Write a sequence for this structure.
């Protein structure tokens, strides 16, 4: 079986380093908000090119904390609106709801599956305060256009970078392309921990100060609470593990790009629509997503040929029971994408033989 994503193989390469990480944390006797977290925050801020990185518990919290931070700063208030793509992973939308704000769905482009900048302005109302573009599948959104629209209307732009660690746009990395950015280090992401982990990056000093406090019950000094915060900390052990993996991120992303280039060049089947890639710098191929009108049959064919695939994502957010008040609405581009997408195996540990086998199998699909 060619696995969709062999996490065991990915992490086995670091097992020696991980044992050192565990021992150093054990020896320190300090497990929460210690030297590994601050060191990782510095290293990841440097990598992204931002002034600040704040480690948090997961990617969902990273986005919630950014929005809560803007509320504390008086820039956003309860019931204000945030524009978000209608075809994202549910967490981008949940973050907006959780922060007491109203998500307003904007359709993606059918070519890139990313937020369509041409549809943004029609959705802006007097209550709109921010745009939350999602760099879905690892490809960066058209940030020049999005930032220009935001500038014209006085909106904040918050990147959802949970799938785009390391991707580059005009010489700058994901996480440094807007006012603030949320990252997830969930095990399956391009930079993955051995459990839940996340971070916020930003150049905004005031926002960073508030999030530093908000993630730790609302205070940086023990038992002094400036805000009604939450407990959303990156822990020492996950930070130590991420510090070992960060230096290999670019190399791992390059291997993903190599595999994606092979797929793009060699998969030739009229029944399969390949992904659009604006440029290889701006895409780190978290997922390689193709489309077909006969998805069920295609997925079964691949399983019969020992190739594992996953659907990202089978149900559009507006059709989820969690958002029942949207269920009757129509977002046709999103619905088409959710109906037809299927993700092929891609990972830094896939071998050339496995890549060739996937290509051959797809080309033989009738
Ligand atoms: C994974 C993911 C998140 C959430 O990250 P968690 O760490 O799982 O909370 C948010 N947005 C997108 C686009 C994601 O893929």
């Amino acid at each position: 079986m060619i696995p969709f994503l062999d996490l065991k193989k990915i992490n086995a390469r670091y097992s020696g380093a991980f044992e050192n990480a565990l021992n150093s944390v054990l020896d320190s006797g300090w497990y929460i908000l210690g030297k590994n977290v601050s060191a990782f925050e510095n290293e990841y801020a440097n990598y992204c090119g931002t002034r600040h990185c704040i480690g948090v518990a997961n990617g969902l919290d990273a986005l919630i904390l950014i929005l809560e931070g803007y509320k504390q700063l008086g820039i956003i208030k309860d019931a204000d609106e945030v524009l978000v793509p209608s075809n994202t992973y549910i967490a981008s939308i949940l973050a907006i709801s959780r922060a007491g704000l109203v998500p307003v769905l904007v359709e993606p482009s059918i070519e890139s599956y990313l937020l369509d900048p041409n549809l943004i302005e029609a959705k802006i109302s007097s209550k709109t305060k921010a745009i939350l573009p999602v760099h879905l599948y690892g490809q960066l959104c058209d940030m020049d256009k999005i930032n220009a629209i935001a500038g014209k209307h006085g909106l904040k732009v918050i990147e959802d970078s949970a799938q785009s660690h390391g991707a580059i746009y005009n010489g700058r990395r994901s996480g440094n392309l807007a006012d603030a950015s949320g990252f997830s280090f969930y095990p399956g992401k391009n930079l993955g921990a051995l459990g839940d982990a996340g971070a916020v990056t930003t150049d905004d000093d005031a926002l960073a100060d508030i999030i530093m406090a908000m993630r730790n019950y609302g205070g940086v000094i023990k038992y002094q609470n400036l805000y009604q915060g939450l407990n959303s900390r990156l822990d020492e052990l996950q930070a130590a593990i991420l510090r070992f993996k960060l230096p290999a991120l670019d190399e791992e992303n390059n291997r993903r790009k190599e595999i994606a280039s092979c797929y793009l060049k060699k998969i030739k089947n009229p029944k399969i629509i390949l992904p659009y890639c604006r440029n290889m710098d701006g895409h780190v191929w978290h997922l390689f997503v193709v489309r077909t009108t006969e998805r069920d049959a295609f997925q079964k064919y691949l399983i019969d040929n020992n190739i594992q695939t996953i659907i990202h994502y089978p149900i559009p957010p507006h059709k989820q029971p969690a958002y029942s008040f949207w269920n009757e609405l129509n977002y046709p581009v999103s619905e088409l994408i959710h109906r037809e997408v299927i993700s092929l195996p891609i990972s830094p540990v896939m071998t050339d033989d496995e890549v060739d086998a996937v290509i051959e199998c797809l080309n033989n699909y009738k």
In short: The first strand starts at residue 52 and ends at 56. The longest helix spans residues 249-266.
